[in-house]
Amino acid sequence: MFSPTRPHRDDAVIAVTGLLGGLLLWLFGLHTQAGRPFAAPWVSLLPLTVMASLELLRRSAPQTVLIIGTLALVADQFTRGNLATVVMFTDIIYAAVVYGTPAAARRIPVTAFLITVGTTIGFLAWFRTPEALLIGVVTGLVSFAPAITGVSVRNHRDAAETARLRADQTALLAEMDRTQAVTAERSRMARELHDLVANHLSAIAIHSTAALSIDDPETSRGALGVIRENSVAGLAEMRRLIGLLRQGGADAEPSAAPTLQGLDALIEQTRTNAASSGLTCTLHDTREESGALPAPVELAAYRIVQESLTNALKHAAPGPVRVWLATSGQVLSVEVTSVFRDRPGPRAPGSGAGLVGMRERVALLDGHIEAGPGPGPDGTKIWRVRAELPVEERAVRE
After folding, report:
1. Is residue 176 part of a domain?
2. Torsion angle, CA of 62/82/84/46, rounded to 10 degrees?
3. Nearest C-alpha neighbor of 349 from the set 205, 211, 235, 208
4. What are φ and ψ of residue 282, in 5° steps?
5. In the sheet that 279-285 helps form, which strands lie side by side, from edge to edge?
6. Is there a domain that residue 191 lies in?
7. Are 129 and 278 within one domain?
8. CA 218, 222, 228, 234 torsion-angle sign
9. Domain identity same for 167 and 299
């Protein structure tokens, strides 16, 4: 950028070059016309000096420079004239179009064209000779040609600026998409990590607390067995997840996502882990055999059941833990209930991340989920997690 009070370097070069060129022509006595009212040779230096001075302001005040330059060119016509004055005036018209306001850039070419046409017609009517057309041609070269050149240059500059802005916007959108993709992938990894190991770690925490608080060798031996079983399973899950993260890329082999067919094994594992807490886990699958569900739906349903069973293991009071699966039209219903009251004995701490993960999974499928306490069928208070998942492929969002 340049300061309005300090001429641009290129403008200074144009001004000095024009002034020196005009002086050289004046010294050699080369003038553009004769028989003018102010015939003294030195008078033609005044418009030349004014025009050269205006070149210093061609960028900072293009419209003002054009007005004063036009007056200087008219004044030059009453002297013996200088070719450098005319050439610098064409540059001033060009600069007014390129650096002026958009409105001025539209008006100047039209005005120059009308002046060219009017001058041509006027001199034809006055001289009534074909040579008068030459005056129109010169007028067009001095005014209309530089204006059109300025329009072309300005359009190219505007197009380049528009392309640059579009490229910047594209880069910004790409960066936003990349950030959103990274955030979404981190959220997915956090959900998977939580769902994979939370069940095992909860069982380890509860049974280790029981082993430390109950002075019974048989109870301690059973608790240690459950701890070992869950620690080995959790370690295997962690190794599998870390292996997937390390491989990545297109060459990584896809891992089999858990499906609803694996719920029996999950229920059996939870039943074993929850035996010492007085919890009994049962599965009620009333779905009709209507083919396999979309993979995202099966994975979400499996994770919801897994997280609900983990929460029951952490917080539920002794009693039944029931899992229901049902289909109604194009909706898969998943419901998990457990006894909701103060629980004696050891409990594992919770962070609330499991409920957040379940809501995120359901939201990705445009489903609905409810979680909270409510009345049970036998008058007891229960904690119910109920999710409704659309099973149509079009409902699944990446």
Report:
1. no
2. -50
3. 205
4. -135, 150
5. 279-285, 319-328, 331-339, 381-390, 368-375
6. no
7. no
8. negative
9. no
What is the torsion angle, in degrees rounded to the nearest 10, for the CA atoms of residue 195, residue 197, residue 201 and residue 202? 10
What is the pTM for the complete model shown? 0.52
E-strand ranges in 219-311 read 279-285
Cβ atoms of 311 and 351 within 8 Å: the answer is no
The tokens of 323 are what?
């899992």
How far is residue 219's CA from residue 207's CA, in Å, rounded to a whole number? 9
What does DSSP say about strands 279-285 and 319-328: parallel, antiparallel, or unpaired?
Answer: parallel
pLDDT in tens, the chain (398 residues): 444 568 889 999 999 999 999 999 999 888 888 878 888 889 999 999 999 999 999 999 999 999 999 999 999 989 998 999 999 999 999 999 999 999 999 999 999 999 999 988 998 888 888 878 888 899 999 999 999 999 999 999 999 999 998 888 888 888 887 877 777 767 777 766 666 666 666 667 666 766 666 666 776 667 677 776 777 666 666 766 666 666 654 444 445 567 888 888 888 888 877 777 778 889 998 887 656 788 888 888 888 998 888 888 878 888 889 999 998 888 899 999 998 877 665 555 555 667 787 888 888 888 999 988 888 777 788 889 999 999 875 444 44
Nearest to 255 by CA among 236, 240, 239, 265: 240
> Do the domain assignments include residue 200?
no
- ∠ CA 241-247-249, nearest 5°, is 120
Residues 277 and 167 in one domain: no
Token pair, residue 338, equals 């457990």
Q: Please say which residue of 171, 190, 213 terminates a domain.
A: 171
Q: Are residues 167 and 264 in the same domain?
A: no
Q: Identify the domain boundary among 171, 200, 215.
A: 171
* Spatial contact of 90 and 147, defined as CB atoms under 8 Å apart: no
Q: Could you list the beta-strand ranges (E) of the chain.
A: 279-285, 319-328, 331-339, 368-375, 381-390
Q: What angle do CA 32, 62, 26 make, to 5 degrees?
A: 20
**Residue 196 domain flag:** no
Q: How far is CA 23 from CA 16, 82, 90, in A?
A: 11, 9, 18
- Both 163 and 21 in one domain: the answer is yes
Domains contained in the chain, number: 2
CATH code of the domain containing 306:
3.30.565.10
What does R_g of the chain's alpha carbons equal in angstroms?
43
Structural domain that includes position 54: 9-171
pLDDT of residue 199: 64
